[in-house]
């Protein structure tokens, strides 16, 4: 009697990863760091559904020489207290960090050319020479950033529009992939502190004033338009003594579908925050308080507003985020332009000689 030979699986056979049991997959997903989590969710639709929660953003850290020139970048996963090195995140020596958005890091090189890097895939996008003259203004030399870049869509989208501001100049520079150079739009003298793309438009802020970038105005040449908004009567009036931009900063961040203006000012060792929700329909700024579970990640990077209920384990006492929250003047607000994060990284994890640059939400796609 002859036995039937068992059929060996073909080496070219494609595995049906979606058919694996959900319970062990969910357990695996709960133990992953942010990078592994991105790869996990990209495997198939089923795996993405099993682990729908986004991870908390990375802290972007940069080592530097005594001349504040960046030499390398690392990432700290605040969800599991892990320092991560991504070899594909290298950048040109002497470059200035200009923010992060859609999973990309933006830099301005010594020749004033802007470029973006996806630190996971290594994909780079080169942009034309920018008109920023950050080296010629001694007053603003040494600031945490001189140029901030915002995107209307993922940078791989052919329709993506890039907009850059500088704290040292009253201008906005715009670049479209179909163009060969930047287009400069000037304001009436105000220096913008933040820029964000929200519901079809770029918005900019200067103190409590909000502006919209209308790229179709003036026959397509573009225009910076003031958005008239009534101020709340109980809003704090910061005097001229706080003019130093190290002490007073205004950020724009989307939270729960609404655009918010976050004003931060430092008085000695104390830091104060003011949260203003933009009500476009009623043309006013509304004073609000953050909810117990609201989180805001501010800095040079695109501002991130989210809700802690979406994250499992972020209230664990061993977590870096919880340690920051317990001692924060405003629980739930984490600003990369304050020294707190650097101090805590050194105290709890022995990570020193690194600057906190901003936040990164990893993106596996090009």
Automatic annotation (TrEMBL):
InterPro entries: F-box_BR-signaling, KIB1-4_b-propeller. Residues 85-334 form the KIB1-4 beta-propeller domain. This is Uncharacterized protein LOC120276126. It comes from Dioscorea cayennensis subsp. rotundata.
